[in-house]
Amino acid sequence: MRFVYSDRYHFNIGVHVFPTDKYKLVKASLLGSGLAKESDFFEPPEPVIDDIRLVHTKEYVDDLLNLRWTSRTVRSELPLTWDIVYGYMLHTSGTILACHFALEDGIAMHIGGGFHHAFADHAEGFCYINDIAVAIKKLQKEGKIERVAVIDCDLHQGNGTARIFQDDPRVFTFSIHQEHLYPIKERSSWDIGLEDETGDEEYNQHLITAVPKIISEHKPQFVIYVAGADPYIDDQLGTLRLTKRGLALRDRIVIENCHRKGIPVVPVLAGGYALNTQDTVEIHVNTAKECLRALGQLPAGTEEQPEPVHPQN
Ligand SMILES: [Zn+2]
């Protein structure tokens, strides 16, 4: 399976809850565990500003390119340096590349991306550029796909993505998230707002119903799976309290349902703020395992996996 990754995703944001070193740690873990080899990783191409403008407004893109601290950039909760802006642009070309790979191979994973709080005209919540939205608009513009579903299983609602596609019936935005938490909610095509302390069983019951329904009713030709690690029990930003096993099952429900129906799927990493960054890394690596399993490429002898899921047809 092809993975998209760049060392430049590890930019310096100072002391911060967002561990930008997780990307290189995920790559190292994939290599160390024998799940991937160096030649499975692909660098994103140089960012194309016109791609970013497919989603983001001229004023906002100008602020980013000129590192201007304005009402549009200030809500990022991040510093604004060229390394950071370039890093976000690179994450965006990475998501686009992973989408191109998935169209050829069925599944490709981006060890990056998932910045679902960025709006067309402003930054929010550690997100400067909505790579998900840019990739979708780019694929549509290229005529490669029309109907898309975003299956967003990050702890937080995909508010930026929801707003960007609010008037586009070709893009179905699904978000399952902790309700009483950041952000101020936008209207997705389908939102499931969960109570605090939801846990594995109820969470995955929702997904077992929702994912096949999205596929059968919206008929997407492509799925971007926002595989945030932050619903985790030891996350610092939320209390949905899913275990690693529950999160791996979540991954399997999304990935298997798409793959069995022949729908290309690209997981992107999004959030993950576990007290111990290694937990966040392991959750993301487990997502990669579920992709490899669906493709029949999981190396023999890799550790115990969650119970099988029987998707509804
Ligand atoms: Zn999140």
Task: Sum up the structure in keywords.
313 residues; alpha/beta; Arginase, Chain A; three-stranded parallel sheet; 9 helices; 11% strand; binds zinc ion; His_deacetylse_dom
How does this structure look, described?
This is Histone deacetylase. The longest helix has 24 residues, at 82-105. The strands form two sheets. A five-stranded parallel sheet has the order 6-5-4-7-8, sandwiched between helices. Strands 2-1-3 form a three-stranded parallel sheet, covered by helices on one side. Helix 1 crosses helix 9 (277-294) and helix 8 (244-260) packs parallel to helix 9. The chain is globular. It is 38% helix and 11% strand. It has 313 residues and is of the alpha/beta class. The protein contains nine helices and eight strands. It has one domain: Arginase, Chain A (3-Layer(aba) Sandwich). The mean pLDDT is 96. The protein binds zinc ion. Zinc ion is lined by residues 154-156, 228, 230, 270-271.
Strand content: 5-15%
Beta-strand segment tally: 8
Specify the CATH homologous superfamily.
Histone deacetylase domain
**Nearest-angstrom radius of gyration?**
18 Å
Protein name: Histone deacetylase
GO biological process, one term: epigenetic regulation of gene expression
Keywords: Hydrolase
Domain Histone deacetylase: 16-285
